[in-house]
Design goal:
heterodimer, A: Immunoglobulin-like, 8 strands, B: about 230 residues, alpha+beta, OB fold (Dihydrolipoamide Acetyltransferase, E2P), 3 domains, 5-stranded mixed β-barrel, 3 helices, 14 strands
Amino acid sequence: MKKETVVAIILGLLFGGIVAVFISLKSKDIELSKNKVIPPLKEKIVSSNLTGVEMKSLELTEPANNAIYEKDTIRFKGIVSKDSLIVVQSPIKDLVVKNTNEKFDFEFPLALGENSIKIVVYPKEKQFRPQEKFIKVYYIDSEL
Amino acid sequence: MKNAIKNCFIVILFYCFFTNSIALGQTPSSTASSSPSIVVDKDIQQLKDKVANKVLEIRRQNNKAISGFVLSRDGNGMKINSDEVNQVKFDDTLTKVFKVLGTSKKEIKKDDIEKNDYVIVSGVVSDNTITANIVLIDENFLVDSGKITEINKETYNIKVLTSDKNTYSLDIETGTKQYMVNIKTLLKETIGFSKLKEGDTVHFVVKKTGSEKNNTYSAYKILVIPQEYFIK
């Protein structure tokens, strides 16, 4: 093979390589510019965000724990979130109430002696945990 | 010290009341007039009422109630397993003992109180001792709620996990009152054991005797809130 032929082949290969590298780089840029990043839907973000929902914790203003009463009925008074389901249970009574306002006030019967009472509030927003309170009140008849 | 001051106050009130009564009581005879007598009677009555109300108020302020199982008995008192106060002292003239029978009560003697009885004591507390005015012998109930985690249809037993991570094993007997909340009307409906499902929320009442093992109780009453209420 002649010397000129060898030089021509080497130069041809070099030129071919340079052109190939240039084309592959250019095609990548074109591909990247064509692909678009799809952002998440705004609606979905809003629906999963719970920080805007107001949650009132259970406040029981009446009756007080370990209180002694001379009557066989008491009133339960307090504050919870609107539209919560309130369940009050004692050995003699089960009460299920849905409160439309934040404040609640209802009558509850007492048995003679010790009354163990549990109050559980299930918020309207089901993802929130229920709130509970346990109290003991005593009904000691004044005539005893 | 506080009680001593209160007792002194009561004594002074009584003293004032009696000295006033005597002093005022002499006035009508000396004047021999009818109209001042009526005024004096009214004053006496008002003073009497004031003293009575004050005594009642002081008694109410100091009055406390505790409860627990009787650990031991002695002649003039007993020891109970209450968290706050555990020594109970009887007063020979003041202390009355009753046995609660459902909605009624029956007076019994102090000697009828036995070890392991569940008692509710009302009286004045001083130095970890309560001087009993009234002792009621009753049943001890436990009221709690949680989620049904297991149902055994052969033994009629359910396992309930409470929010404070306690697991109760409840035997549903023929006498157990079983209710379910209607999720549309929110009214209570009587149900049978077959209606219970794992995942339901249950509010329960059990009688505690003090001799239970492995947190297993015979259920006195259950109220179920079906899981459908929480997914509607």
